[in-house]
Specification:
The chain has two domains: 138 residues, OB fold (Dihydrolipoamide Acetyltransferase, E2P), CATH 2.40.50.140; 259 residues, Bira Bifunctional Protein, Domain 2 (BirA Bifunctional Protein, domain 2). 33% of the residues lie in helices and 26% in strands. The longest helix has 23 residues. Strands 6, 10, 11, 14, 15, 16, 17, 18 and 19 form a nine-stranded mixed β-sheet that branches. A five-stranded mixed β-barrel has the order 1-2-3-5-4. By secondary structure, it is of the alpha+beta class.
Length: 497
């Protein structure tokens, strides 16, 4: 006996022995194709029969996983499930034959096995549309018993590590990922209808940029070059506007070598779009229109339940500057304190939390994250950020310490980020140089200097609004899930070893 078989439990051994017997009988437990082509899904067969589109003697061929069975001597009721749902089948020994009924269906086929049946549709005395089976065959033998359908799979660690079992045991989890796909499709429809072009930009980049984040690094052996998994699409998408496109978007993966939490995963799905001849005010209108449109398409309305709250994404959303939001929550007006030392003293004087030796920008960001963000339940645009923490945004004409930037928040979470894009190549170079110099200090998330992007800006970037949002967090909102791991099919976890 192989080593892998030594740890089989009793049910697994029984199924393994049935597998051996099937082969001894000349029955392939894993045939390459169906004996008859499927004519209907379960849902299609039920709908067609109810609509009178199937004649009483018209055969249908169905496939699916065996979910339940109720043996009653020479006949049995069972349910099979395919991707569209489940359907009841009725199997009689005198119709399918003794060998098929007694030796195959009753004895060698287990719950969880995939089977195909051909038969005619009818309605039982209890009113359930069913298929009376004339032919039955095995399509795939399962060697592990199915998870408990009645109690579901509750252990969170197992659910994430073995998502396939989670999907089998919990139909509501399958619905989450169907809805996720619908969200992405609705976003694409909105942007396509608005004249945006979907594009693809490099995942492996020689210089990372577009966000304040630590990258994953790798090495290309033939090129003898260090490369980075992208942390953002931004710098490449803006190159495309330099090249003549006016509206572009990308939906894809970003990678950030940072912490994991209920709202962070190292690999996540991002949407970014850029639109020429508009600014961050135009982006606000675009974002609230898009989110409300997706809500209508996916959920049938603009009021969404989330974590015990009713979230109303109907435009227009509240708009408030970062300065006013922090002042309202903490009493600190950070514009009065031009450096980290004086701002630290003001924070200490009010007994508020702060990070020692933090830069002025990080102190402001900390005040916002601790005292403002958790209270932003209804959709809110926080506008006008300090230039210290916004290296790619255009400065406000009347206040060079502040940039035309917003983030939008829903349910106490930051959901997305947008700018009036910085298109002055001289100003951009100066800010990149400042950040590059900061890398020599404590700021590990500073941007390296991207000379090619600066060269692109010298060819001219039109006035532009840009926006990015996480698809995973949007899916959390639209499915009322409080952990990002609930909306990522295969989230990153620590190794069991």
């Amino acid at each position: 006996m192989e080593e892998t078989e030594l740890n089989l439990n009793e049910q697994q051994l029984v199924r393994r022995n049935k597998l051996i017997e099937l082969r001894d009988r000349g029955i392939d437990p894993y045939p390459a194709r169906l004996p008859r082509a499927r004519t209907h899904t379960a849902a299609e067969a039920i709908t067609a029969f109810r609509a009178g589109a199937l004649a009483p003697d018209q055969p249908v061929t169905l496939v699916g996983r065996l979910l339940t069975e109720r043996i009653m001597g020479k006949a049995a009721f069972a349910h099979i499930e395919d991707g569209s749902g489940k359907i009841q089948i009725y199997v009689k020994r005198d119709v399918v034959g003794e060998a098929t009924y007694d030796d195959l269906f009753k004895r060698l086929i287990d719950l969880g096995d995939f089977i195909t049946v051909t038969g005619t549709m009818f309605v039982t005395r209890t009113g359930e549309v069913s298929c009376e089976v004339r032919e039955l065959a095995l399509l795939s033998k399962t060697l592990n018993p199915m998870p408990d359908k009645w109690h579901g799979l509750k252990d969170v660690e197992t659910r994430y590590r073995q998502r396939y079992v989670d999907l089998l045991a919990n139909p509501e989890v399958r619905e989450v990922f169907r809805k996720r796909a619908a969200i992405v499709a609705a976003i694409r429809r909105y942007l396509d209808d608005a004249g945006f072009l979907e594009v693809e930009t490099p995942v492996l980049q020689p210089i990372y940029g577009g966000a304040a984040a630590r990258p994953f690094t790798t090495f290309h052996n033939q090129l003898q070059q260090e490369l980075f998994l992208r942390i953002s699409f931004e710098l490449y998408l803006k190159r495309l506007l330099v090249g003549g496109y006016e509206r572009v978007y990308e939906i894809g993966r970003d990678f950030r070598n940072e912490g994991i939490s209920f709202k962070h995963n190292p690999e996540f799905t991002q949407l970014e779009f850029y639109e020429a001849y508009t600014d961050y005010h135009g982006m606000m209108q675009r974002v609230e229109e898009m989110v409300s449109s997706v809500a209508q398409q996916v959920c049938g309305g603009t009021v969404l339940p989330y974590d015990g709250n009713e979230i109303d994404v109907t435009p227009p959303w509240r708009r408030i500057s970062m300065r006013d939001a922090i002042l309202e929550a903490t009493g600190v007006d950070y514009t009065l304190y031009p450096d980290a030392a004086t701002l630290t003293e003001a924070i200490k004087a009010r007994g508020l939390r702060y990070e020692p030796k933090a830069s002025r920008g990080k102190l402001i960001d900390g005040l916002f994250g601790d005292y403002v963000e958790p209270k932003l339940i209804q959709p809110t645009f926080i506008t006008d950020y300090p230039v210290d923490i916004s290296p790619l945004a255009k400065k406000k004409a009347d206040d060079p310490t502040t940039v035309e930037r917003f983030e939008y928040f829903i349910a106490g979470m930051e959901m997305g980020n947008a700018f009036s894009e910085l298109n002055d190549p001289i100003d951009q170079r100066e800010r990149f140089v400042e950040l590059r110099d900061a890398m020599a200090g404590a700021d590990e998330n500073a941007h390296p200097l991207d000379e090619d992007f600066l060269a692109a800006l010298n060819f001219g970037l039109p006035p532009t609004g840009g926006f990015g949002t996480g698809i995973d967090r949007l899916t959390m909102l639209f499915t009322d899930r409080q952990s990002i791991r609930e909306v990522i099919l295969f989230p990153h976890l620590r190794s069991i070893d």
